[in-house]
């Protein structure tokens, strides 16, 4: 049984999250890092705070200290970068500015996450999610995932 049209057009919330944010921001800045295992190290203690999917596949754990990884870095082709918060702030601002064009209500939730008010049929919402994902990739150069649901919790869960 299909829901009445009025139900399907209730306001929804989209949760947009940049994948592996610091590593993705470094790649947007330096495309030569694409496809390589990349980790970003904390400037305080030299532990991995972000891992690209390739770095995760190597079995590198979150919080793993650089001194433990360094002996195998060459063999893995691992790129380890120190944190560049100025760059991440700049990329974040560009992502949020772009997302703001898709909704009159945007809540910046963290440096790489936002909630947006959205409306439409399921097909329209799917198309909107895909359009936002493609636009952020094309214009800012970072990958995002989008989840849409009736509440923030469900939108985040859907993501
Ligand atoms: Mg993220």
Provide a descriptive summary of the structure in words.
With 159 residues, the protein is α+β, with helices and mostly antiparallel strands. The radius of gyration is 18 Å and the shape is elongated. The protein has helices spanning 5-8, 21-29, 53-57, 66-76, 85-100, 122-139, 152-158, and strands spanning 12-18, 38-41, 48-51, 79-82, 106-110, 113-118, 144-149. The relative contact order is 0.23. Helices cover 44% and strands 23% of the residues. It has a four-stranded antiparallel sheet with strand order 5-6-1-7, sandwiched between helices. The protein has a three-stranded mixed sheet with strand order 3-2-4. The chain folds into two domains: 10-21 and 86-158, 2-Layer Sandwich (Alpha-Beta Plaits); 22-83, MutS, DNA mismatch repair protein, domain I (3-Layer(aba) Sandwich), CATH 3.40.1170. The protein binds magnesium ion. Magnesium ion is lined by residues 17-18, 21, 112.
- Corresponding CATH superfamily of the largest domain: Reverse transcriptase/Diguanylate cyclase domain
Small molecules bound: magnesium ion
CATH architecture of the largest domain: 2-Layer Sandwich
Per DSSP E runs of 2 or more residues, the count of β-strands stands at 7
Q: Helical content, roughly?
A: 40-55%
Spatial order of the strands forming the largest sheet: 5-6-1-7
Kindly provide the radius of gyration, computed on alpha-carbon positions and rounded to a whole number of angstroms.
18 Å
What structural keywords apply?
159 residues; alpha+beta; Alpha-Beta Plaits; three-stranded mixed sheet; four-stranded antiparallel sheet; 2 domains; MutS, DNA mismatch repair protein, domain I; 7 helices
């Amino acid at each position: 049984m299909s829901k009445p049209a009025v139900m399907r057009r209730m306001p929804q919330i989209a949760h947009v999250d940049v994948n592996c944010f610091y590593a993705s921001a470094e790649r947007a800045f330096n495309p030569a890092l694409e496809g390589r295992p990349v980790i970003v190290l904390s400037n305080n203690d030299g532990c991995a705070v972000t891992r690209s999917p390739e770095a995760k596949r190597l079995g590198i754990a979150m919080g793993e200290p650089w001194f433990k990884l360094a002996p195998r870095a060459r063999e893995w082709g691992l790129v380890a970068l120190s944190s560049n918060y100025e760059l991440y702030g700049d990329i974040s601002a560009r992502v949020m500015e772009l997302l703001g064009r898709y909704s009159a209500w945007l809540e910046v939730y963290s440096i790489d996450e936002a909630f947006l008010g959205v409306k439409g049929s399921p097909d329209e919402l799917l198309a909107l999610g895909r359009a936002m994902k493609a636009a952020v990739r094309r214009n800012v150069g970072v990958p995002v995932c989008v989840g849409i649901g009736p509440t923030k919790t469900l939108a985040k869960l859907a993501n």
